[in-house]
Amino acid sequence: MKLYYYSLLLATLFFGCTTNQQLDPVEQKVEGLLSKMTIEEKIGQTALRGTSSRVKGDLPESLKEAVRKGEIGAFLNIMNTDYVDELQRIAVEESPNKIPLIFGRDVIHGFKTMFPIPLAVAATWDPKQAEITGQVSAFEGTSSGVNWTFAPMLDIARDSRWGRIAESPGEDPLLGSLMGAAYVKGFQGDDLTSKTSMIACAKHFLGYGAAIGGRDYNTAIIHDPLLYNVYIPPFKAAIAENVQTFMSSFNELNGVPASGDKKIMMDLLRGKMNFNGFVVSDWNSVTEMIPHGYAKDEKHAAELGTNAGVDMEMTSQSYEKHIKALLDEGKLSMDQLDFLVKNILRVKIRMGLFETPFRDKKHDGKLYAEDHLEKAKIASAKSIVLLKNENQVLPLTKNKKVALIGPLADAPLDQMGTWSFDGEKEHSQTPFSALKDHVIGFEKTLDYSRDKNKQSFSKAITLAKKADVILFVGGEEAILSGEAHSRAEIDLPGAQEDLILELAKLGKPIVLTIMAGRPITIGKIKDKLDGIVMAWHGGTMAGPALKEVLYAEMQPEGRLPVTWPKTSGQLPYYYNHKNTGRPAMEEKFVSMYDIPVGAWQSSLGNESHYLDAGYLPEYPFGYGLSYSTIEYSETKISSTQLKEGEELTVEVTVTNKGEYDAVETVQLYVQDVIGSITRPVRELKDYQKIQLKKGEQKKVTFKLHTDQLKFYNRDLEHVLEKGDFNIWLAPNALASKPVSFELL
Ligand code: BGC
Fold it and tell me: Residues near 414 by Cβ (< 8 Å), separated by ≥ 6?
């Protein structure tokens, strides 16, 4: 019976409308248009043509003619408003059915005013910051005619070698879902027809973040329950927030390239997940099914893509060239083509493009407006994670003589991070520009993060000798993270470590601020540092944001959205791992340097750890310090037994015992001890950010509903399983002692 209804639903989605849908004015308009369209125009709607954003001069006649004939449905990267206006005019005045175009662009974390990279925004643990990022980005970007952004990227990332971790919400499905929904809300606003918002695109569906070895574009192998429990939730959250488009990913998942996978795009996305916008392929991802070894040629790729339900093809033109033949040969039915076209038309109608196709020429986007910069600064400051603060080296005070050193301290382009297509470095306020009145001098010493030239070390040392504190701002240039920019080793590149080791010889306190698109391994230098601050690629306002946090004008409140490894050899590494049959234990761990020579093979105890790197990360997921000392009481629960449908009250008292006000993120983790499939050692189920004045104590209370304990089992049923659970209220994924309850 269930199967019957499911098939019916799919058939409805694929082949046509129900009576109810026909009553819907949007669907009526879709049907009306479709009935007038030629095959060529239908094919045209599926085409997303790219032009280089750097193209200057006259708009090519060939493009105008193609639009006139209705052969193109959307463009990406046209960053010339005259072109945008003219192409849209041709589309709505001269093309056969006057169907407007959509204009797409990667407006990922800012248009002109750059906000922090998405991984940094996730570190705020404040979805409002993602919403604001989306709002301001859309507001500025729409002034250029862009009405569709290829964001947010919702790929869960468990491997910091992967360059695109910078663009991800991190490793946790709950945090990823909250951030994903908030970006969609920010980009799209509550009115899809507004000329100051953009439609969003949840990408990349599916499994792109699980590239084996963290090497971009690599194969992903994810078993179904893991897919449903970890990788899919952020995408579901985006749909719940009414996201209008999805992007199919480059990767193959479990043997099938996503852009040709009907099970993913139809059964899952349109069927189970109820998505009813349109799916665009990633850049050439349809024709890349040829090198994947899945399509034998372009025509076959077009057949696979269209049959899978990938509605629009980005940049490659296999649909344009081959759909007609596929129809003639019966490899694609007219109903199937209509399905793709209807999905696209529906979104164009919802965007109000048939009524108001043109951008608002009076809307100037308020590029780099004061309030945009202020919002970007706040997001950036809130994303900063204090990782180490020995001897209270931080916050800095005005009476301390600070020597500013390092390649990222004045790197206006790099601080904007990956996907800063439209941001201009001239507008970046760098740490140096923000701190120049606070420091006794500045020596960049290394020109860029990979610089190996040690010639200027002596200048840095001369400056450092005069200082009380050395503030080293290092990290990675923007180009070292992002798409195709994976690294096998994720340490500080170039001669940065050598420089820090030289400076350390002076015996002065050193604070390392890292500006990077991912966690950076610091094993060789950590002990030489009193302070470590993760400032990510913080965008246009990274400098003032850093200054305000370092001088305690704002409190450090960021928390890691991703596990910080000791060495890249530990990757992939994530807090919600499984226990294994031989979990690592402190009592039993022997470092390889403590193993007696000639030791008997099994004398070490056989646990799941690395002999060199142990079994703990450098810093766990959820970690971050404040300038104050925060103490947690034991976790209390309202009952040790719970029945389905009930709520457990969970409580902890948090006390600020230090000298500064603080913002604390109280995290609720759960472990389902025994499951029909093994369950993670901890899973984040909720959290609260609270303000704690110095000396203040607060009781923090959560309600945990049994629905939050459900998971997808081996048969992909969303189940609640009776038995024992552990629960923690903790400052990070490794801290605190659990209490237990039983689900009856
Ligand atoms: C990326 C997408 C992006 C697209 C368009 C691709 O290379 O994977 O995320 O939206 O290019 O620029």
Answer: 408, 448, 449, 476, 477, 478, 479, 515, 537
Q: Write the CB contacts of 13 (distance below 8 Å, at least 6 apart in sequence).
A: 266, 270, 271, 276, 339
Residue 154 Cα to ligand 1 midpoint, Å, equals 13
Ligand 1 and 485: CB distance under 6 A: no
**Residue 421 in contact with ligand 1 by CB distance below 6 A:** no
Q: At what angle do helices 457-465 and 496-504 cross, to 10 degrees?
A: 30
Q: What are the Cα distances from residue 647, in Å, to 472, 687, 702?
A: 48, 16, 10
* Known catalytic residue at 224: no
The one catalytic residue among 282, 311, 338, 530:
282
Is residue 53 in contact with ligand 1, taking CB distance under 6 Å? no
Mean pLDDT (10-residue bins), the chain, 744 residues? 40 44 83 97 96 71 94 94 95 98 98 99 99 98 98 98 98 98 98 98 98 98 98 98 98 98 98 98 98 98 98 97 98 98 98 98 98 98 98 97 98 98 97 98 98 98 98 98 98 98 98 98 98 98 98 98 98 98 92 93 86 96 98 97 98 97 98 98 98 98 98 98 98 97 98
Q: Find out whether the beta carbon of 203 lies less than 6 Å from any atom of ligand 1.
A: yes
Cα(204) to centroid of ligand 1, in Å? 9
Residue 121 host element (H or E) = helix 118-123
Which residue's C-alpha comes closest to atom 10 of ligand 1? 150
pTM: 0.96
Does 150 contact ligand 1 (Cβ within 6 A)? yes
